[in-house]
């Protein structure tokens, strides 16, 4: 991978980040992420497929509900939107290649300023995607997935595909078309649908059945268009609860899988799961991963974490080894991510204002997940956790338990068995032992 620096170097004094090992004291080096290290038959780079999020890294200004931005970017000063987009692309690919990340992800409006004229906005997206294509060719960086921002513009205050006004739905379709076209042109491995406002605030003014049907219709329409125009990648839906809409139609893994199954979309889609969204849904990240994996839908991940004292999507960089070790064990058990990668949908804190802070944040996140991959591989190789789980369900492996799983027993049979065996023995779940075992590997 070549380091790409445009006419201006935005991250001066920072060279390409290298792996130096666990004994390194260099804050601008990896201690665990060695992209060429073989783990469970593949390199770390192949397993993790790290991607840089265009929006938080190069657009996020550090603002929060209580104050304006604190991150002031030298690539965001030109008055012309095309020039600003080109400058931002220079900064982005300089950072991505210095980090050594093989992929990036973007929303259309992150790449270039939105216009309310669909023709003008399409022209802008085509312009910046031409620049991205050249940057990709020069650097070897690839597009993991693209997506459209169908939640920020005021027209989407009542949703995009689920909006009660067909004119808004038409605008959403126009925006989706240009974003899909750009993703196809750039060879994106996937395309993400994130229903940021696909939901409702009150049933008093909402026809929920009709809105869900419209959402499904838009997905079918997009899939048909993309396939007809040569898209070979995977479609993803990213579950998200509560924020900003009180009742999101894409609440969590189980909700989305049920939706896809109901509307005959399972064969085209996988899930792109985010840690912070699992927290907001009242789940652990491992829970969301396991639900998706059990249904053959664990395809991609957004890496971040939430703040348990805050009730919104804080998008902090991942640091929880235990959380990620559990998640990576699920990924390894299913043989890897099904078509996606791990995108850092995370942002620096409001008071982290130095350019180097962006590197520290990503280095820490990549090292956390790389270390978790190593731990997960040790857990699976050791085998004790999986043996204990299998043993806990061993009564279904033979005899009457196996017959029950096979659907051979009637309710009367269960009654007869219960009267014959008497009160079952209490069998420990060994939760504390297993938690200690996980701690040993960490």
TrEMBL record:
The active site is at 107, 110. Its main location: cytoplasm. Mg(2+) 1 binds at residues 238, 274, 302, 345. Binds 2 magnesium ions per subunit. Belongs to the xylose isomerase family. Homotetramer. This is Xylose isomerase. It comes from Aquirufa rosea.
């Amino acid at each position: 991978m070549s380091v790409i620096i445009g006419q201006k170097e935005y991250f001066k004094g920072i060279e390409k980040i290298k792996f130096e090992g666990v004994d390194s004291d260099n804050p601008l080096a990896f201690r665990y992420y060695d992209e060429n290290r073989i783990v469970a038959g593949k390199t770390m780079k192949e397993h993790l497929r790290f991607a840089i999020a265009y929006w938080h890294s190069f657009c996020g200004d550090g603002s929060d509900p209580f104050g304006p931005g604190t991150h002031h970017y030298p690539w965001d000063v030109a008055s012309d939107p095309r020039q600003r987009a080109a400058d931002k692309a220079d900064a982005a690919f300089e950072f991505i290649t210095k980090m050594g990340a093989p992929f990036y992800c973007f929303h259309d409006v992150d790449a270039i300023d939105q216009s309310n004229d669909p023709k003008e906005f399409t022209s802008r997206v085509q312009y910046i995607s031409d620049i991205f294509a050249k940057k990709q060719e020069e650097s070897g960086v690839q597009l993991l997935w693209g997506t459209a921002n169908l939640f920020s513009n005021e027209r989407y205050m009542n949703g995009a595909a689920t909006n009660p006004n067909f004119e808004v739905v038409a605008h959403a379709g126009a925006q989706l078309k240009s974003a899909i076209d750009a993703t196809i042109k750039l060879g994106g491995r996937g395309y993400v649908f994130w229903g940021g406002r696909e939901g409702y605030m009150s049933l008093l003014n909402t026809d929920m059945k009709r809105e869900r049907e419209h959402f499904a219709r838009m997905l079918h329409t997009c899939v048909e268009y993309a396939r007809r125009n040569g898209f070979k990648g995977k479609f993803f839906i990213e579950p998200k609860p509560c924020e900003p809409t009180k009742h999101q139609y894409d609440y969590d893994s189980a909700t989305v899988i049920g939706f896809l199954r109901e509307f005959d979309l399972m064969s085209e889609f996988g899930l792109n799961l985010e840690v912070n969204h699992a927290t907001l849904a009242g789940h652990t990240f491992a829970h969301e991963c396991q639900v998706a994996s059990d249904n053959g839908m664990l395809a991609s991940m957004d890496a971040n974490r939430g703040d348990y004292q805050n009730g919104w999507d804080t998008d902090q960089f991942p640091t929880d080894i235990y959380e990620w070790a559990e998640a990576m064990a699920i990924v390894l058990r299913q043989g890897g991510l099904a078509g996606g990668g791990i995108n850092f949908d995370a942002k620096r804190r409001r008071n982290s204002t130095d350019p180097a802070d962006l590197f520290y944040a990503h280095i820490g996140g990549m090292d956390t997940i790389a270390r978790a991959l190593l731990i997960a591989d040790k857990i699976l190789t050791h085998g004790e956790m999986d043996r204990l789980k299998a043993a806990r369900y061993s009564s279904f492996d033979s005899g009457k338990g196996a017959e029950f799983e096979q659907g051979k027993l009637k309710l009367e049979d269960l009654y007869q068995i219960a009267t014959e065996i008497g009160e079952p023995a209490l069998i420990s779940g060994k939760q504390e032992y297993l938690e200690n075992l996980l701690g040993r590997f960490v």
